[in-house]
Every structure is written in C-alpha cells, then in structure tokens.
C-alpha cells in the first residue's frame, strides 16, 4: 500500500452528471437528484432489478426460488439474506434453469416448464417463485404463461416474478416485482374468506439475525399477536392469512410501502411506519402500536416494557457514549429508513454524522435525512466507490456503516466499519440490538489498530 499523501480531486474534476446527486447541508440549493437509473443490466449500487426482487422474497422459508436465467444469477443471490428460520429450510437452496446459448437462441420456455415439473416432483413445495433475469427480458420468454400452466398442472402457486434487469437500472423496480408476486400469493381463492383478527402483520422485516423474533417477543408481552412477517421466517400458509390482520407495520419502506398501500386498498388494512433499530426508535414504535389499539392494558404493559428495557441498557449505552464522543461517521446503505435509524442511533452514542447516502432514497426521504444532519454534512444518492473514497478522506471519517461492497474500501482507507448489510448475522433490532450496535461501533471505531495507520486522507489505494 502506498502511504504517500494524495490530493483530493477538485470539484471540476468530478463527473458533471453526478453534481445534482451530491449535496452539502446548509450550502446546496434545491432538491437532490435521486430518480436516474444506473446503467441497465449492470451490477452497480442501484441495480440489479432481479436482486431487488430476490432479497424481498428469499426469506419465505418453505417456497422454492427458481431463477430463469444463466447460472451466475442464481449464484449471485444464493442465500442472499441472513434470515433465520424456525422451521423449513427450503429457502437455503437456489434453483436455476441454467440457460445456455442454445436456450437463448431458441427460447427457454420448454426448459423452464421441465424444471418446474422436476422441482415439484422432487420437493413438493407449497409454492414456486420463478424469477426472470436480464436474458429472459431480451429474448421474450412468456414467463406468465408458463407459470399459469404449471399452476394448473400441479395445483400449487407457481408465481412469476417479473424482474428482468433490462426493464430498468434500479432495484426498486425489483421491489415492485416482488410486491406484486406477494399480492398474488396472498389473494384468497375464489369463495374463500379470511376472517378478520386483531393480529398485525410486520412488513419489511426479514429476520436478519433473528430480529423478527425479538419484536415478536415485545408484542407478546404487550398483549398483541403477530400474524405474519413479510417475509422473515414466513411460510406460504402463513402469508395467505395476511388479509386477516387489523394493522400492517412497515419497517423497510422502500420494499414494502407498495404492498401496504395495496393491502389497504384491497383489504382495508391500515398501515403505519415503524423502526426497531435503536432504543429510542424501538420505544417510539412500540408506543405507536399500543396507541393504535387504544387498550389501556396494552398501553400499561407497553410503558412497563419500555421503561424496564431502557433502564436495563442505559448503563451500557452511556459507557459506549463516553468512549465514542467526538468520533465522525459515514453512512451508506440501501434504503432511507435504515439511514434515518442509523443517524439517530449514532447521535445517541455521541457520534457526529458527516456523510449519509442511500441507493434507493426518494426526494422526501432525503429531505427528512437532511433535517437530521448538521450543517456541512454531505448527502449523496447512488454513490460510486470513487465518491465514497473521496468523502471518507475529506470528512476525516472514523467509522462507516454500510454494506458488503463498502467494507473493503473502508478498511483499506483505515476507517472502522459497521456491517449493516442484508446478509449479516448479528441482531441489531430492539433494545438488545441497540447494545449490540453500540458495542460494534465502539469495537471498530476505537480499535488500537488504527493508531498504527496514517489518517484516511493520507492513505492512497
């Protein structure tokens, strides 16, 4: 590694088309640009569409996930979520039609139908999700027709997930494809009625490191029963009971707001945004849920739970806060809801946030993120590695929260790193998760290894 001092690029050296996607709080005017797509078909920060669909649906534990495309697409997303299951493990497998040149030239519909028949015969799943990929979008295989015929042939749900990458360079389109597949799955059969209950659904929760189980435990103590999570530790049968809930909680807004709005329109189920990352976020969310039910006993139990848990973790949080005072952080994650949660958590720990960015944030979400930051902080949409490197250097960042693509870059620059990727195994939700998060921030930001390196601005890749 060359440790010579380097000079940051001048503003005029930056790519002109990226200027609108980067703002400095207190200096930049107007709204941040966040609607442009990445290059279609490219594996970039914003893409790919198929990956966006797969991360939403993959935690359905007993379903088969069949990728209609080259084997590389299935390999890329094999076990892509760090989701845990309390029962079935079918979702740990990755099935592919393994399309070759011949299939691309002559079409892959017959091969797809044969693959579905083989899977059903060997595994007898309750449902099969069939994902289209970039190649399928180019050659025009009729995924819908093949799945419809397979449904009639086998008497199970064979659901097309229209996630061809050449539709768009934005994985949000993949979220929508997954949402539409879920709406097809939960639609009651003709003549079948789902009885209403006082249970609630938890949307945008994928049970990473068992986080859904933590929230479920809180709800049970409050006197509220969880109906089904979308899609952490869920089964096909449980998801089909979703229309009977009285309320939808939405955590990952990017992937599940569409599902929530559609369920409100079709089934009359209201929804509310919640966030269980961070102690204060968790407390606020539990109180909002209790207020929805309007039951004095539920509200009493909720307050008792919140006060007990906050008192329990307060000494740990305060200890880490003293050690982390004055540290500077950067955040780059997939969605804005997660970025907002991280900002609040880091602020609770006395850490200053100097850079924040997302892959899929919307204009109003960036406005909210900006309101949480101090003047001089940088907001960036769909950042590339060169931009992240530049900001880590210039803003003298001590610790970065991000996904798998940012980990190596941070470490090479001598910056501590917090894993907040969708394949992580550490539970970061709830009150206990707040302590786990604080410990991770302290362990990496205050590691003695950093004193043996020069500052990020002096490190050259």
List keywords for this structure.
alpha/beta, Rossmann fold, 6-stranded mixed beta sheet, 4-stranded parallel beta sheet, 17 helices, 44% helix, 14% strand, Nase_comp1_CS, nitrogenase activity
Please, could you describe this protein's structure?
InterPro entries: Nase/OxRdtase_comp1, Nase_comp1_CS, NifE, NifE-like. This is Nitrogenase iron-molybdenum cofactor biosynthesis protein NifE. GO terms for molecular function: nitrogenase activity. Pfam families: Oxidored_nitro. This protein may play a role in the biosynthesis of the prosthetic group of nitrogenase (FeMo cofactor). The chain has a 6-stranded mixed sheet, sandwiched between helices. Strands 3-2-4-5 form a 4-stranded parallel sheet, sandwiched between helices. Strands 7-6-8-9 form a 4-stranded parallel sheet, with helices on both faces. The protein has helices spanning 49-57, 71-76, 101-106, 109-123, 134-139, 143-154, 172-186, 211-222, 236-239, 253-267, 279-293, 296-324, 336-348, 363-372, 385-394, 404-412, 430-445, and strands spanning 22-24, 64-68, 95-96, 127-132, 157-161, 200-205, 226-231, 247-250, 271-273, 328-333, 352-358, 378-381, 399-402, 416-419. It contains 17 helices and 14 strands. It is of the alpha/beta class and 461 residues long. The N and C termini lie close together (6 Å). It folds into 3 domains: 11-30 and 314-458, Nitrogenase molybdenum iron protein domain (Rossmann fold, 3-Layer(aba) Sandwich); 49-184, Rossmann fold, CATH 3.40.50; 200-303, Nitrogenase molybdenum iron protein domain (Rossmann fold, 3-Layer(aba) Sandwich). Helix content is 44%, strand content 14%. The chain is globular and about 65 Å long.
